[in-house]
């Protein structure tokens, strides 16, 4: 019999579990409400009533949302930003981090100091906006991609991970005639797949949830990201804004709350579907570069 199996729960354990249960319930109940309202038939929906499960299931709100040009445009915008931005993030971050691991690279110290400087100091919103404006990227998807190609935190963590790889493998590859690019592509990249998977998840989630930068850099409603559209639906205006070019005004017969909740669920769905499969990589990514030996 193991010690863990025979251990009795103490008063502290009961208090701890109770508090964790309350916190979990506080986090879960809002999600259950959004889920239930979004699937509730508009004919039986009662405002300000809490639903654990829909009284009558219906997909009408989802069908309406998916028929509107506003939501579809936002979905296309967010998908493009997420896919292209994530690929560029991974390429730039791992390439630069690998270069920073080479002590003989000219200017390495200056570049590393610049990276660390940006980790401590930030230019701020106004200078960033002026820079994007002067580059002519306002109202462009590239304003959301180029402005965040990498970050100091990502570079430092990836650099630490790459430095933990056996240097003997790179030396052997060079003896066999591999160039620096060949070593990076054939040796470093295959060995870095766990790190690449973890940071791909980090970058993809960040791009999918892009809100603030999209709010200040993009004023064209046709190029809004999903998060900006959902914010507009939930906070700024009523649900009629989503269907200006959509289902011909059918939303007048639908409760605004069911449409809003359906939009929220659709904006969360891709992450909810993908995250469980990449959770192990996410957990590994938190520990990348934390131990060297």
Automatic annotation (TrEMBL):
PANTHER family registered for this protein in UniProt: ABC TRANSPORTER PERMEASE PROTEIN MG189-RELATED-RELATED, POLYGALACTURONAN_RHAMNOGALACTURONAN TRANSPORT SYSTEM PERMEASE PROTEIN YTCP
Q: Which organism is it from?
A: Paenibacillus baimaensis
What is this protein's name?
Answer: Carbohydrate ABC transporter permease
Topology relative to the lipid bilayer, per the entry, is: Multi-pass membrane protein
Q: What is its main location?
A: membrane
The ABC transmembrane type-1 domain extends over: 75-278
Keyword entries, A-Z: Cell membrane, Membrane, Transmembrane, Transmembrane helix, Transport
Q: Which family does it belong to?
A: Belongs to the binding-protein-dependent transport system permease family.
């Amino acid at each position: 019999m193991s010690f863990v199996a025979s251990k009795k729960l103490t008063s502290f354990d009961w208090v701890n579990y109770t508090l964790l249960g309350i916190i979990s319930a506080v986090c879960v109940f809002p999600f259950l409400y959004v889920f239930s309202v979004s699937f509730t038939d508009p004919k039986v929906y009662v405002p300000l009533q809490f639903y654990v499960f829909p009284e009558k299931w219906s997909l009408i709100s989802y069908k309406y949302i998916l028929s509107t040009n506003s939501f579809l445009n936002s979905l296309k915008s967010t998908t493009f930003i997420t896919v292209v931005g994530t690929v560029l993030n991974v390429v730039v971050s791992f390439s630069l981090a690998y270069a920073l691991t080479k002590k003989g690279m000219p200017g390495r110290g200056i570049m590393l100091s610049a990276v660390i400087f940006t980790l401590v100091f930030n230019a701020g919103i106004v200078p960033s906006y002026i820079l994007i404006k002067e580059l002519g990227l306002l109202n462009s998807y590239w304003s959301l991609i180029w402005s965040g190609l990498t970050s100091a935190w990502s570079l430092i963590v990836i650099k630490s991970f790459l430095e933990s790889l056996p240097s003997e493998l790179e030396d052997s590859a060079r003896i066999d005639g591999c160039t620096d690019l060949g070593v990076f592509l054939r040796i470093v990249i295959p060995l870095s797949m766990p790190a690449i998977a973890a940071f791909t998840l980090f970058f993809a989630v960040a791009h999918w949830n892009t809100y603030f930068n999209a709010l200040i850099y993009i004023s064209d409603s046709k190029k809004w990201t999903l998060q900006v559209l959902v914010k507009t639906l939930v906070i700024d205006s009523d649900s009629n804004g989503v269907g200006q070019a959509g289902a011909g005004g059918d939303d007048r017969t639908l409760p605004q709350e069911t449409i809003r909740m359906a939009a929220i669920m659709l904006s969360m769905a891709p992450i909810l579907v993908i995250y469980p499969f990449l959770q192990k990589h996410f957990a590994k990514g938190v520990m990348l570069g934390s131990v060297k030996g």
